[in-house]
């Protein structure tokens, strides 16, 4: 397959047409080898609109949704970003000049994509997803669906820091932008999205007698 051509087609047909006008995002996505961030036997589907398998139950978020999240986050070169269960977003942000750490709780994910992240200059850390790596962050992004936003994620941001993710408690989730102010987090809803929910961050069901 001509992955270079596939990348351009993906940006033209999935990103630009969905109101993503940030040219830095376009350029970074046309340079980032998305096929390196999924299971090798799924590389042929890397530029499709499906959520492609990485390892186990982890999936790549479709490029359209990653692009829309990043545009809302307004990343700037030189900023510090944490990508939680978001390896493709991590690579794109690194191409845009940010200092990026990719965090996963399952080392098996990095066995598949760790070398690709290293090639992009992205640091990696294995830790529970509810325990973000670093403090005073400019940006946090996640490609997985989240039922309940961990308070620790907001705590890890600096004042003025941003966080983009998808809150999902039913069939359709809502992407949202959070900005940390002096009084806490503000929230702005962005668009519909339905990534696989990060089971690790899903509270166990409770039952009443």
Distance between the termini: 58 Å
Helical region count?
A: 6
Query: Class by helix and strand content?
Result: alpha/beta
Low-confidence stretches: none
> Order of strands in the sheet with the most strands?
5-4-3-6-7-8-9
Shape: globular
The proportion of residues forming helix, as a percent range, comes to 25-40%
Sheet-strand content, in percent, reads 25-35%
Rg over CA atoms, rounded to whole Å, is: 16 Å
Question: Any descriptors?
Answer:
209 residues; alpha/beta; 29% strand
Q: Can you describe this structure in just a few lines?
A:
With 209 residues, the chain is of the alpha/beta class.
Description:
The chain has 209 residues and is α/β, with parallel strands linked by helices. Helix content is 29%, strand content 29%. It contains six helices and nine strands; from the N terminus they run H-H-E-E-H-E-H-E-H-E-E-H-E-E-E. It has helices at 3-15, 23-31, 63-73, 87-95, 107-119, 151-155; strands spanning 53-55, 58-59, 80-84, 99-104, 123-126, 137-146, 157-167, 173-181, 184-193. The strands form two sheets. It has a seven-stranded mixed beta sheet. Strands 1-2 form a two-stranded antiparallel sheet. The longest helix has 13 residues, at 3-15. The mean pLDDT is 94.
């Amino acid at each position: 397959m001509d992955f270079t051509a596939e990348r351009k087609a993906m940006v033209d047909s999935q990103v630009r047409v969905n109101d993503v006008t940030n040219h830095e995002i376009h350029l970074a996505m046309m340079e980032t080898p998305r096929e390196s961030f999924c299971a090798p036997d799924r590389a042929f589907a890397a530029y499709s609109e499906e959520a492609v398998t990485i390892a186990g139950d982890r999936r790549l978020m479709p490029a359209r949704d990653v692009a829309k999240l990043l545009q809302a986050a307004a990343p700037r070169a030189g900023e510090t970003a944490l990508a939680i269960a978001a390896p493709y977003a991590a690579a794109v942000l690194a191409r845009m000049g940010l200092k990026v750490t990719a965090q996963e709780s399952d080392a098996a994910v990095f066995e598949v994509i760790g070398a690709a992240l290293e090639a992009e200059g992205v640091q990696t850390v294995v830790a529970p997803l509810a325990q973000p790596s670093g403090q005073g962050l400019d940006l946090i992004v996640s490609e997985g669906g989240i039922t309940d936003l961990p308070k620790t994620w907001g705590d890890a941001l600096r004042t003025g820091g941003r966080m983009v993710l998808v809150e999902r408690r039913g069939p359709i989730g809502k992407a949202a932008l959070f900005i940390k102010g002096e009084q806490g987090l503000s929230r702005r809803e962005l668009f519909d999205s339905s990534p696989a929910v990060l089971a690790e961050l899903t509270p166990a069901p409770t039952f009443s007698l």
